[in-house]
Amino acid sequence: MTKPLIFLDPHPRNEMMVYDQATEDTLNQMGRVVAHFGSRAPDHLVDDILSEVEIIIGQTAMPKERLDRAPRLRGILNVKANWEPNIDYAEAHARGIHVLSAAPCMAPAVAEYCVGQAIMLARGLHTSDGLFRDGSEAYGIAGNETAYSLYGADVALLGYGNLGRALAPLLQPFGCRIMVHDPWLSDSYLRNEGLEPVSLEHLLTRPKFIFLLAGVTSENEGFLNRSKLETIRPDSSVILASRAEIVSFPDFVELAGEGRFRAAVDVFPQEPVAPDDPVRMTPKVLYSAHLAGGIRPSYARIREAMLDDVGQILKGLPPLRMQRAEPSLAGKMRSR
Amino acid sequence: MTKPLIFLDPHPRNEMMVYDQATEDTLNQMGRVVAHFGSRAPDHLVDDILSEVEIIIGQTAMPKERLDRAPRLRGILNVKANWEPNIDYAEAHARGIHVLSAAPCMAPAVAEYCVGQAIMLARGLHTSDGLFRDGSEAYGIAGNETAYSLYGADVALLGYGNLGRALAPLLQPFGCRIMVHDPWLSDSYLRNEGLEPVSLEHLLTRPKFIFLLAGVTSENEGFLNRSKLETIRPDSSVILASRAEIVSFPDFVELAGEGRFRAAVDVFPQEPVAPDDPVRMTPKVLYSAHLAGGIRPSYARIREAMLDDVGQILKGLPPLRMQRAEPSLAGKMRSR
Amino acid sequence: MTKPLIFLDPHPRNEMMVYDQATEDTLNQMGRVVAHFGSRAPDHLVDDILSEVEIIIGQTAMPKERLDRAPRLRGILNVKANWEPNIDYAEAHARGIHVLSAAPCMAPAVAEYCVGQAIMLARGLHTSDGLFRDGSEAYGIAGNETAYSLYGADVALLGYGNLGRALAPLLQPFGCRIMVHDPWLSDSYLRNEGLEPVSLEHLLTRPKFIFLLAGVTSENEGFLNRSKLETIRPDSSVILASRAEIVSFPDFVELAGEGRFRAAVDVFPQEPVAPDDPVRMTPKVLYSAHLAGGIRPSYARIREAMLDDVGQILKGLPPLRMQRAEPSLAGKMRSR
Amino acid sequence: MTKPLIFLDPHPRNEMMVYDQATEDTLNQMGRVVAHFGSRAPDHLVDDILSEVEIIIGQTAMPKERLDRAPRLRGILNVKANWEPNIDYAEAHARGIHVLSAAPCMAPAVAEYCVGQAIMLARGLHTSDGLFRDGSEAYGIAGNETAYSLYGADVALLGYGNLGRALAPLLQPFGCRIMVHDPWLSDSYLRNEGLEPVSLEHLLTRPKFIFLLAGVTSENEGFLNRSKLETIRPDSSVILASRAEIVSFPDFVELAGEGRFRAAVDVFPQEPVAPDDPVRMTPKVLYSAHLAGGIRPSYARIREAMLDDVGQILKGLPPLRMQRAEPSLAGKMRSR
């Protein structure tokens, strides 16, 4: 029996991220591997494999006409964390092709980062070192006048997808009351998860911690505009963790710079940020350069989950680890 | 029936910390309150209350000759987090006087701070903002070359008292393997708590995260000397959270400044640190000015626990919330 | 706009189970409801609704030719806990119709029952009352010679689906080591869930508690035959909770009756069991009459989950609460 | 240096329970052991060891005059689960002697038993087997008309000591709302434990599950009299787990026999119960012969905890595993 054809086209993921030696060995045991790195696979290479390919690992464009030419295709494993618009999700679903993303594998690292950022903002850990080095530190309670804590805090999650599900357990031992606004989830589902469904208005005005975890869709781009941002409870700690496009970014940074709320920003509308972008000068914001998710252990998780689910699919079993595309939703997502 | 005499002598705690209006009202319901703030109560004031006092809240020196003159005394509630050497612990115990400290009330805030510090050091959150503002940031995995994570990490606690017991649950959802070295606790006790007892050597050389949480005793001052510190696993994140005196401080800071390990330092041998202390210039260390414990919610916890335990003691019941002095150990502790 | 047509055909579920007043009211708000109770809906009624129906709640047979006539159908919510062979799962999937079952709603009640049965068998609670009433009781350790405990026990789950996922959290505070054998799940998936994947041989021979939780498929009927059952660790507690057909039932009961292992049996090959079935006389087995899942709170969960998911589907959103059919697996299940 | 003298006088505990070979070996490493089994040690033997004994393991009577003759005594480790009135607790405390009991070691087994009993009563598992054997079983919901569940239930604990602390975590995954009435504990302490402090009236009239876990003191004997028992919410499941003396036993059994509430009874005013005691004939009650705590793993826990704490005490460190006598409370306890 011929081994199944597995096609790797993971750019911008590189070999170190998704194809280390152990991964290569395992994939070679499971199938015949054709791999292309460094760019999206050229058309002729895709044309070559379509008639036989059973598994695609990567972000190869798969519109209907390509799916039509791939009769043996059983799984498309997107090793990025978001849904690209280059797949015909409905058609793939109709053909019983599993379309998966690696979002759950990046979520733990992002959740950890979010906890770090939240504690820094609330407890003043982003400024304590500078104050000490300047000799302008104050000790104990005198230095803690504006400090607050996650313990027992009201916390809001805007969006309860992979990131929210990874973050909630980290907040649990702090005894937080966790509110969620997610228009894709029903109130009783959230309550069964031990979360409190709230309106967007409530989410902005009540809690002391707000984690912005929603993806960008064709419907929500920039929906957190200036007037909404101005309703945020003063002095709250706001962590922008998923996609910069969900907020009106200049307003968000400006309000944070004015001290209207505390903010941590890891994602930007354009990356890299231009050298002379004034955003770099805005005071008070805690910046980082899209560092929350992309650490080595996240790629190890991707490799493990990917191998697991390739194995399941080739056995005719449902995938277990990566996230399945919801045809009704994946098409709405806006990727870069 | 005369109401019991309650004596408040909480300096350096002030009224805002331990005697807000609600606390004052509750104590006045339970007894006749004599309070002194701003300094340790003068001798004549102590002399006045000894014969009748039933509860002392504060750090009044209580050597045997004063205990001898306080026949009705039932509880001494130290509202600081450590044991001072100014009490005859054995004599108080023999008289059935409950001697308590507020250490458990400060521990959650310290544990939260420790988690923040650990994530900062491991994930580079103490430097990301500066790099971004300098325009020298790298994005994603390129900026994460030296990043590591708490998830699944080997973590060590030096000392498993109030701080360790508050910290362990915060680490639990990260799936850490938690090692403890504490010469006052038996191995099987630690194993029953789900912790791994390890030698000091093992604690320094193996884990990627080390939390220094031990108190200072007459026996352990400076015991983490340069040669021991040099065995720490390279690039580990070391959080000095309890008392600076357990390490050879100049060596600790020097090694951290050389990048031998990553370090967060919240406590110092002398506080405030002298303006020209060279420690302020040491690079790489993440400093803060003894800010980990002393936030408002910690004082709210102290007030609540103190009222609870005064109530219990006055009813002839055991205290529940504050920590009880172990006569065999309290006398060994070194306070400032 | 016309309200969507919702068709109820839930037999053998009756109105009390799935259509109480509150449910009726909510469904009527969401759509036009056509309901049939007391038998499977007759063909002419189904024929009447097919062209317009958007949601089917119940077990209506839906082969391809009916799906072809139901162009607006978006969801089939089977309110039983298993997959019937009367749906063309692949075709429904290809059409983007959500096919759901209520299995997750019954699982908590079954898991609770399993815990009760396991403690009874291990601790002798199924015999203690009779011994006491006979006057042949022994007190304390003398009466506990054969007792054992869930604390720290090796526990095995045969099958880790809805029942396993409901049972595992109930075992967690006992500190059990939980082994799983489930050929549909990968080892690394199970390890990530904190479970230990084991072979069937290991599952039978090692642990002291075995929970039989697998569904019946065309492949596994009767696979726990006499020779396999004879390898069970002597004196283990074996709980038969899902489907009697996975074991060779006469052998299972006979071996349990001989004291080869302890057994609780809630499910039978034929229900009701014949009045003169010799199984009724077999000593030692702890019997119950398929009582584990079907309690009132289970039906309340079904009603809530069903309303939730009807709401999601009608909004074009993914269902959240009920279980989705895996086309590759649902077709293998054997229902009665 | 002479090894410390350790005296064993554990009757009614026997060698199998507290002095297996491994325990004997460890104790012999730590000290010189003098042991007496089969009865309380005779006076002359006690007289012989008093002047040198450092550790007593057992229930030796230790009034003041004996304590006066035991100047080196540092610990009394009662290997039963209750406080006997034969020790001068205040005097022992004043001398700095650790007085401990094994109650925490028996609690897990009792808690497990309680969960089993509660599920049996609520789900009908105490009658299902008999009904099936009689051929009078009903299947599924028809057989579950009076069944209810622990999931989401209101549960009450009368007394929150060792048993309550062991039981609460087992109830946690069922999502129970746990109410506690315990006059020795403050409301805010209970709230901090995640429990709801309630009055005795509330405890009897509201919840569906009542666990009677209180010890007997000179103050509470028989305090749950007929008029109080008659206020119990009809059809509740009441588990009598600690001491029969806290209820008016004949009334309790009579009311349960009449079906006023469901009841499980493991403890009796006199044990063994007389052969002709009419209590044996009372219908409906689920009886067991004081089997909840005394299983082998409980004794293993006692041995481990005892060795741990002997080791701590001999090192001058506080004990960690066994329960410390509260002088103000231990004297109130009524043992048999």
From TrEMBL, chains A, B, C, D:
Protein keywords: NAD, Oxidoreductase
Protein name as annotated: Putative 2-hydroxyacid dehydrogenase YoaD
Superkingdom of the source species: Bacteria
A Pfam entry, by short name: 2-Hacid_dh_C
Residue stretches making up the D-isomer specific 2-hydroxyacid dehydrogenase NAD-binding domain: 116-292
A molecular function (GO) term: oxidoreductase activity
Enzyme Commission number, as recorded: 1.1.1.-
Gene: yoaD_3
Similarity comment: family membership: Belongs to the D-isomer specific 2-hydroxyacid dehydrogenase family.
InterPro entries linked to this entry: D-2-hydroxyacid_DH (IPR050857), D-isomer_DH_NAD-bd (IPR006140), NAD(P)-bd_dom_sf (IPR036291)
